[in-house]
């Protein structure tokens, strides 16, 4: 079981400009954490660096106290997986062939399909509801199905921690909910730690146990949505005037942005 | 999973999932390739009945047939088949790295590098009487070194915090054009015989094959193909994109460098004796992908079989169609390959 995931005086850069500066951050385990912030604030960059896809300029990401760049990448891959934003599968790949790749860090050239591999791949297909599509080509699936197939691959990697970079981008609302429900269930039933970047503040408030708001090259505020999400925070983080209320069904914070539009009295 | 079969051997020490449908197709293509391999010994200046060919192969033919088949025809068939396999697999590897069906050794300059090195060799080792100061046997080595070095140059130039597929292609096209310019310049200012010698090599031909060449090239290509077959997993993962591959625990850049070296070595061994037979590395893996799908475990051997078929058939046409004139195999692969390339360009406007 993975115990801790944290960053120590982490500085990230693109060229000469720092995106994140000197950040100390600890991610709660077995919970859903959502990173939110304005476009270009560095939330995706931060997520990618936590998943060791981006080398920090200074500081480090610690997985169970060890620098993630000093561990072998295969070792890390057994504890932590990341689903990048809008991944593209090679033309002609079937769902099963895709999901099977999730077993890569657990395999070698002799053992490419052990009983454990088979069991975990089939479970991942079932958990994401794509088991009936396993012989279909990934590029022939609808957006929502395709995203579920990719999540199945990530699940097959069998890691305690799963990171997702905007898993609901390009999906219609129905499929956004479907994907978030799926991730919610994975967290509830299998106690997987989920860390993701989302654009929709309201969905973030509904699904996240823990919200991290990113601004000014660091974390602006973090905590349970119902404790930290206020109109002052939204104003600071997104530069948006809004009214905060409670979701009539879920009771979680609901942000209603001001602006123009039709008004019915 | 109807067409898939789980294979577990030696108390689960070896296990894999076999795609029965794709394997059947691979077997069929391999059988066709083997048949062409044997029957192509019938074709040439004179047609020799396939039954006679079989007699010769089991050591019962006439001395004359023996001479023609074993000494003249078999070496070039071997060379054609193995050069075809090597070029096709090199192309399949590049397509895996670059994730684009247009990627091939011709496009990213590896073949052009071999060509420039060959012409450079001829220029450097010619004396004032226009005759070579060293043995022509060294020519293939020059081609090998040129192809490998250019492969590395492309890689190094494309490096910027890692090598991205797009940069690899763009730098490759640039380097390729540069190499072709050097080749053309050397051919124009060089002696006449050099131009014809170089031309033969640049077009790609298995005409001058002999058993010595076969003894060098075949084991080399076999070893490289075997290595490729054992790392198909890496290719599968590499093709999912850099981020996904890294998430799955692959050392993306190290693997990419190794794969590029492997691909360059395959191209270099193929073209060292057979010359730069064009478009095989583009067409074969692409055709194979359409037949068996993108999983490299079966894609690599299928590409190899189709590559061998293409070059063997091109060579059969080359030595029979305009008899008594011989046309290099590379002319025919280019004649089908160039339109195929244009077709691919139109089919993939978004790529």
From TrEMBL, chain A:
Residues 5-241 form the ABC transporter domain. GO terms for cellular component: plasma membrane. The keyword Nucleotidyltransferase does not apply. Gene3D superfamilies: P-loop containing nucleotide triphosphate hydrolases (3.40.50.300). The keyword ATP-binding applies. SUPFAM superfamilies: P-loop containing nucleoside triphosphate hydrolases. Coiled coil: none annotated. Keywords: ATP-binding, Cell membrane, Ion transport, Iron, Iron transport, Membrane, Nucleotide-binding, Transport. GO terms for biological process: iron ion transport. It is a peripheral membrane protein. This is ABC transporter. It comes from Lysinibacillus xylanilyticus.
TrEMBL record, chain B:
The chain crosses the membrane at residues 26-44, 77-98, 107-126, 138-157, 169-193, 213-231, 257-284, 296-317, 329-346. It holds the Pfam family FecCD. Its main location: membrane. It is found in: Cell membrane. One of its GO terms (molecular function) is transmembrane transporter activity. GO terms for biological process: siderophore-iron import into cell. CDD domains: TM_ABC_iron-siderophores_like (cd06550). GO terms for cellular component: plasma membrane. It is a multi-pass membrane protein. Keywords: Cell membrane, Membrane, Transmembrane, Transmembrane helix, Transport. Gene3D superfamilies: ABC transporter involved in vitamin B12 uptake, BtuC. Belongs to the binding-protein-dependent transport system permease family. FecCD subfamily. PANTHER family: FERRIC ENTEROBACTIN TRANSPORT SYSTEM PERMEASE PROTEIN (PTHR30472), FERRIC ENTEROBACTIN TRANSPORT SYSTEM PERMEASE PROTEIN FEPG (PTHR30472:SF24). This is Iron ABC transporter permease. It comes from Lysinibacillus xylanilyticus.
């Amino acid at each position: 079981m993975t115990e801790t995931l944290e960053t120590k005086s982490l500085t990230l850069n693109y060229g000469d400009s720092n995106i994140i500066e000197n950040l100390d951050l600890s991610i709660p385990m077995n919970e859903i954490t959502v990173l939110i912030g304005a476009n270009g604030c560095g939330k995706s960059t931060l997520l990618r660096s936590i998943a060791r896809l981006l080398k920090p300029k200074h500081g480090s990401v610690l997985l169970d106290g060890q620098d993630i760049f000093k561990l072998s990448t295969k070792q890390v891959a057994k504890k932590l997986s990341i689903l990048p934003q809008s991944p593209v599968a090679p033309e002609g790949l079937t769902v099963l062939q895709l999901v099977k790749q999730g077993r890569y860090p657990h395999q070698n050239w002799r053992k490419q399909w052990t009983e454990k591999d088979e069991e975990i791949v089939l479970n991942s297909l079932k958990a994401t509801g794509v088991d009936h599509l396993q012989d279909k080509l990934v590029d022939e699936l609808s957006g929502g199905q395709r995203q579920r197939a990719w999540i199945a691959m990530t699940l097959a990697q069998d890691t305690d921690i799963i990171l997702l970079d905007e898993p609901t981008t390009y999906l219609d609302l129905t499929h956004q909910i479907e994907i978030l429900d799926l991730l919610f269930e994975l967290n509830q039933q299998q106690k997987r730690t989920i860390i993701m970047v989302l654009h929709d503040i309201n969905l973030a408030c509904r699904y996240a146990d823990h919200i991290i708001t990113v601004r000014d090259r660091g974390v602006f505020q973090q905590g349970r949505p119902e404790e930290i999400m206020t109109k002052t925070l939204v104003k600071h983080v997104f530069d948006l005037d809004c009214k905060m209320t409670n979701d009539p069904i879920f009771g979680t914070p609901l942000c209603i942005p001001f602006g123009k539009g039709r008004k019915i009295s | 999973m109807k067409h898939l079969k789980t294979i577990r051997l030696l108390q689960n020490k070896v296990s894999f999932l076999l795609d029965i449908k794709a394997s059947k197709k691979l077997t069929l293509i391999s059988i066709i390739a083997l048949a062409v391999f044997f029957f192509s010994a019938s074709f040439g200046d004179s047609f020799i009945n396939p039954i006679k060919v079989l007699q010769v192969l089991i050591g019962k033919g006439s001395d004359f047939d023996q001479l023609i088949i074993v000494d003249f025809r078999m070496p070039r068939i071997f060379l054609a088949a193995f050069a075809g396999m090597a070029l096709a697999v090199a192309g399949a590897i590049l397509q895996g790295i670059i994730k684009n069906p247009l990627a091939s050794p011709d496009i990213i300059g590896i073949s052009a590098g071999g060509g420039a090195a060959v012409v450079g060799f001829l220029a450097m080792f010619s004396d004032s009487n226009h005759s070579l100061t060293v043995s022509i046997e060294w020519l293939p080595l020059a081609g090998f070194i040129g192809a490998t070095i250019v492969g590395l140059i492309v890689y190094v130039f494309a490096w910027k915090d890692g090598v991205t597929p797009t940069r690899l292609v763009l730098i490759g096209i640039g380097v390729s054009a540069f190499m072709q310019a050097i080749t053309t310049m050397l051919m124009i200012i060089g002696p006449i015989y050099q131009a014809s010698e170089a031309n033969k090599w640049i077009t790609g031909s298995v005409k001058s094959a002999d058993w010595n060449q076969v003894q060098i090239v075949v084991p080399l290509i076999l070893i490289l193909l075997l290595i490729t077959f054992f790392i198909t997993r890496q290719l599968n993962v590499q093709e999912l994109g850099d981020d996904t591959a890294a998430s799955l625990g692959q050392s993306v850049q190290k693997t990419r460098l190794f794969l590029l070296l492997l691909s360059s070595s395959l191209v270099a061994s193929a073209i060292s004796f057979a010359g730069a037979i064009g478009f095989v590395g583009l067409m074969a893996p692409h055709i194979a992908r359409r037949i068996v799908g993108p999983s490299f475990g079966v894609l690599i051997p299928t590409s190899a079989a189709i590559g061998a078929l293409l070059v063997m058939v091109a060579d059969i046409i080359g030595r029979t169609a305009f008899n008594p004139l011989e046309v290099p195999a590379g002319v025919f692969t280019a004649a089908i390959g160039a339109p195929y390339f244009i077709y691919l360009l139109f089919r993939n406007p978004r790529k």
